[in-house]
Amino acid sequence: MHPIVVDLDGTLIRTDMLHESALRVMRDKPLDLLRIPYWLARGKAHLKSNLASRVAFDPSSLPYNQDLLAWLQAQHAAGRRLILCTASDRSIAEPIADHLGFFDEVMASDGSSNLAGRNKADALEARFGRGGYDYVGNSSADLHVWQGARRAIVVNARAGLARQAGRLCEVEKEFPSPALGMGMLRRVLRAHQWLKNGLLFVPLLAAHEVFNGDSWIGLLLAFASFSLCASTVYIANDLLDLESDRTHPRKRARPFASGAVPAWMGVVLAPVLFGLSLVLGSRVGPDFMFWLLVYFAVTCAYSLRLKQLVLLDCLALAVLYTLRIVAGGAAAGLPMSFWLLAFSMFLFMSLAFVKRYAELQLQIMNGKDKAHGRGYATADAPLIQMLGINTGIAAVLVLALYLNSEAVIVQYATPELVWAAVPVMLFWVSWIWLQAHRGHMHDDPVVFAVKDRVSLLAGTTFGLIVALAAIGWTW
After folding, report:
1. Residue 230 contacts residue 197 (beta carbons within 8 Å)
2. What's the Cα-to-Cα distance from 374 to each of 249, 348, 359, 367, 464, rounded to whole Å?
3. What confidence tens digit (pLDDT) does each residue in 28-47 have?
4. 442: which DSSP letter?
């Protein structure tokens, strides 16, 4: 029987190891990026070898094409020889072949020869003879290989590639690529996270300037700018956190981690989104632009390093939430209240601890001792729970002190009524932590809150109390 030769990048796995190696070097050894032009000048194989030598990866966590994997296992069981033949460096190809356990041979780039396109076709013809093998590939570069193959198996390919391959040899089988529709784009952008940017409107509501039309126009532009900026950082974070996401029971389904969307698309999309964010932000005003850039800088610092540091990661998350409120005040031209900022920091610190506590609980359930890519051990969960509950209560205490200040008497027609907001907030903070303790918490407590009926009822009640106190209502 003719052997089956299998390509790696974009075929056996739904990603490209060269792209992933470059992303990991950028995250872990950014100064080495300056060497890339020198390595590339000595040949693409030399570049791949140097990038591969600077990163470690777990073959078991890669996003394999499961349908193709099942077919290959069946072919191996039927007695066919399987050869992994890839342009990736040998130091990457061999661990993958060892992990899968059914490849009889590995052919790969070796630092001097780049086994791609015509080079791969020549190597296979020299090894098996013209027409002496079946080839599994996914890209137009594989047309050179199919020209010398007996049969083609086309995987995860663009429209029309199978037809082109069919002109060169018989196409035995096709494995279609997943559709990239609007739903996938929303997941890439994490559009549901844009809900958090509703915090931009908090200063307008707190200052009772709801009917200020000019402020609304600026805030709507600010919302769009912040949302695009947030999506930029979410994409960058997902690209830099691929391996960690793949070890997480839910995050491994994210578009880049699962391989549903190739990493290069994220690399192209992120700067485009950031450019659009800056264009919109410049229309709002210089004060808003300053806070937008501060937000971007802190999010980048969080993605690159702060999220790995115990406690500082939660503090950074609380700052990022609070920065949205500060930016909203700048967009609306409203001064920031100490009470509002203090309340925000304590409340969002508590929610950040909820997020980490929920992640640690999930790791405990999966029998792990620590959270991958984070500085926490699962044994830290009780301490994180205690810190989170305390900061949540502190937020309620700040709210209670604010409601007893002179500012309330001036702004609210019925200040006594607004005191009822305190037990509502106290209930909600307690409810959130109860759900986290029971293991019902989503990875993101804000996303949980907008889907949770009890949280929505508490939020509605809180808003109604504040509104009635503002317009005046007696009983």
Report:
1. yes
2. 16, 19, 10, 16, 40
3. 888 898 999 999 999 999 99
4. -
In whole angstroms, give the CA distance from residue 84 to residue 22.
22
Residue 227 exposed, middle or buried by CB count within 10 Å (0-12, 13-18, 19+):
buried
Taking only the tens place, the pLDDT of each residue in 70-109 is 999 999 999 999 999 999 999 999 999 999 999 999 999 9
Phi/psi region, residue 259 (left: phi>0; alpha: psi -120 to 50; beta: rest), is left
The tokens describing 252, both together, are 């491994």
What phi and psi values does residue 135 have, to the nearest 5 degrees?
A: -125, 135
User: Is residue 158 classed exposed, middle or buried when 0-12, 13-18 and 19+ CB atoms within 10 A define those classes?
Assistant: exposed
Query: Structure tokens of 437?
Result: 């303790």
Q: In whole angstroms, what is the distance from residue 302 CA to residue 355 CA?
A: 15
| Fold assignment, 186-336 | Tetracycline Repressor; domain 2 (1.10.357)
pTM of the model: 0.85
Q: Per residue in 263-311, pLDDT tens?
A: 999 999 999 999 999 999 999 999 999 999 999 999 989 888 888 899 9
Tell me the Cα Rg of the chain: 27
Instruction: Tell me the domain boundaries of the chain.
Output: 4-175, 186-336, 338-475
Nearest to 429 by CA among 366, 350, 315: 350
DSSP string, 114-126: --STHHHHHHHHH
Would you tell me which CATH number, out of the four given (3.40.50.1000, 3.90.1680.10, 3.40.50.150, 3.30.200.20), belongs to the domain 4-175? 3.40.50.1000
Residues 193, 319 contacting (CB under 8 angstroms): no
Strand (E) or helix (H) holding 171: strand 170-175
